[in-house]
Amino acid sequence: MNWSYIKKFFPIIGVGLFIYLLIKLDVVKIFNQITSLNIFYLGIAFLLFFIFFFFQTLKWTIIAWKQRIDIPFKDAFKINVISDFYGFVTPAKIGGVIRADYLKKYDGGNRGLSNFVIDKVLDLSSLFILAFFGILISFLLYQNSIISEGYVYLLAGIAFVILICSVIFYKKESSRFLLKFIYKKFLPEKIKEKARLAFENFYEKIPSVRFLFFVFVINIISWIINYSAVYFIGLSLGININFLIFLSILPISTLIAQIPITINGLGTREVTMISLFGIFAIDSVKVFSMSLLGIVIANIIPSILAIIFLIQNKKNEVHNI
């Protein structure tokens, strides 16, 4: 069995789930639900998503500035929109690594990759923290966890592994010690020098732990703003429940969406949200409509803007030849 061949079909799983839900829940009902929404609440959601994009850009840009990558915030915002577009169309948003390539223009080296990795680790860490506290909140408010005890232990275990790996790989010498075996035994000779330079560049001007904790807090704020936007989309569709319930469910659905079996969590996120909101007797059509509107506002509209930026960049390249 050719595993690499099978992996090519992974993204279809999530898309298939999404289409299945769309058909099962009835396209007409979903359309009617969306067309009867409250425009005022939707407008607030738009504003909050814009603020979220600002914070999303800010968190990795200040890391870049700390790494002596001299990039104006305006350019960083454009790069963020473009990298989000690539992240939107790839499993687990891995396409967002394109940002590292764009940063070479301002870096003169390869610190863009370390910028991306640090940002991604802080992003996932903040999600695990929010998910853990979300489960705790649901238990305190309703005396019942929204997920089983086994999954709580799994979340805690993964968070612990991320913490340990972060501590180990933050230090250059411990990383060198652990990666030396792979470097000597598995890397072909022709790429060893390139790998060595990449390693040295990765640890060049890496920010302090105190500074990274500050960025971690910005990550938390950023996610809360994002979930506040989804909350207002929910209100626009008539989902009138406590914001804390949103804050307990959405981090879990976001984490599930990181599983690389679909494009940008499509399908897996919706199944998770419908299941968890169903605990609070929220209609599945409303939940699916809320997710669909979130995709349009947070992904599709910025993707159109990203395509415009890419076309402009291409024109500038042609003009400079």
Task: Walk me through what this model shows.
The chain has 321 residues and is mainly alpha-helical. The chain has two domains: 37-170 and 207-313, no CATH class; 172-206. Helices cover 80% and strands 0% of the residues. The protein is built from 14 helices and no strands. The longest helix has 37 residues, at 284-320.
How is the topology of this model organized?
Layout: H1 3-7, H2 10-24, H3 27-35, H4 39-66, H5 73-88, H6 98-107, H7 111-142, H8 149-170, H9 172-185, H10 189-202, H11 209-236, H12 243-257, H13 268-278, H14 284-320
The profile of the biggest β sheet is: none
Please indicate the percent range of residues in DSSP E strands (runs of 2 or more): under 5%
What number of structural domains do the residues give?
Answer: 2
**Helix segment tally:** 14
Calculate the mean pLDDT score and round it.
81
Radius of gyration: 21 Å
Instruction: Identify low-pLDDT runs.
Output: none
- What is the helical fraction, as a range of percent? over 70%
What letter string, H or E per element, gives the SSE order?
HHHHHHHHHHHHHH
Shape: globular
Number of strands: 0
Q: What class do helices, strands and sheet pairing give?
A: mainly alpha
Distance between the termini: 48 Å
